């Protein structure tokens, strides 16, 4: 999702002489490099980040100065049922946006009365496989130092070879918000200096279009569908309790019709008793 951009043109009443532009100053060492960060959120969490009429995501972009984008509601990270958030901008702006989003999601986690424990959630970063070496280090030295410094849990998943051509891995962070943000700061600062990482900045959701993957199931588990030039027919049988069948069908069959229209190929849904 993109923020609304406006351009303004000034037209003076009297013609004025244009002064030559000042010489461009060389970039300073303190100037932030443009970077990006991607992480996963559930469909429900994505709705919370967007807000009614896009109000929340617009506010987060305004507060942070970063650009926030989400994959479409049917574009999931392969092997999961989670959407992808991409945040781009300077490092400080990107970190601010990440913190706003995670804090928002943490605030919506239900807590029991009398429970003073700080709510927690795992954060799964999406990192190109080619750049993972820069945060692992020789013999795992860098990731160990990140864990010790941030006190967050950091785990890098192996590359999922069940999806041909997938080039991203997941970096899972656990801990308090402060610990996770410290870890993200360390990781993002390291990745920004990696040339392999910057090369992938302009193709955040390319695999979503390539796989056209639909994953449905509990806790992220699901069946993988991969479409190619050849027409392949897949059949999946799912058991549904009698008391829940009405939710699947919908009033007047509305839900079934919407499911059948999710894809232009028109998947068919057959109910059996």
From TrEMBL:
It comes from the Eukaryota. SUPFAM superfamilies: Eukaryotic type KH-domain (KH-domain type I) (SSF54791), Prokaryotic type KH domain (KH-domain type II) (SSF54814). Residues 1-32 are annotated as: Disordered. One of its GO terms (molecular function) is RNA binding. Coiled coil: none annotated. Keywords: Repeat, RNA-binding. This is K Homology domain-containing protein. Residues 33-106, 119-192 form the K Homology domain. It holds the Pfam family KH_1. InterPro entries: KH_dom, KH_dom-like_a/b, KH_dom_type_1, KH_dom_type_1_sf, KH_sf_prok-type.
């Amino acid at each position: 999702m993109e923020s609304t951009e406006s351009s303004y043109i000034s037209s003076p009443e009297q013609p004025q002489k244009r002064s030559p532009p000042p010489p461009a100053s060389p970039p300073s060492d303190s100037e932030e490099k443009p970077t990006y960060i991607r992480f996963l959120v559930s469909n429900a969490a994505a709705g919370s980040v967007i807000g009614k009429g896009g109000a929340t995501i617009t506010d987060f972009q305004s507060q942070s100065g970063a650009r926030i984008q989400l994959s479409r509601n049917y574009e999931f990270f392969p092997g999961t049922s989670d959407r992808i958030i991409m945040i781009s901008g300077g490092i400080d702006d990107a970190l601010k946006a990440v913190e706003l989003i995670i804090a928002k999601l943490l605030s919506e986690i239900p807590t029991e009365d009398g429970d003073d424990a700080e709510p927690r959630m795992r954060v799964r970063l999406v990192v190109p496989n080619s750049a993972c070496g820069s945060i692992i280090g020789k013999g795992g030295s860098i990731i160990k130092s990140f864990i010790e410094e941030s006190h967050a849990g950091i785990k890098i998943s192996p590359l999922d070879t069940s999806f041909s051509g997938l080039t991203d891995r997941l970096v899972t962070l656990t801990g308090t918000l402060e610990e996770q943000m410290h870890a993200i700061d360390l990781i993002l600062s390291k990745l920004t200096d990696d040339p392999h990482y910057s090369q992938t900045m302009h193709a955040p959701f390319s695999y979503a279009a390539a796989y056209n993957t639909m994953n449905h199931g509990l806790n992220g588990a699901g069946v993988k569908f991969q479409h190619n030039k050849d027409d392949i027919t897949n059949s999946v049988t799912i058991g549904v309790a009698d008391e829940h069948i009405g939710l699947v069908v919908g009033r007047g069959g509305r839900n079934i019709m919407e499911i059948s229209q999710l894809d232009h190929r028109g998947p068919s849904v057959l109910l059996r008793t």
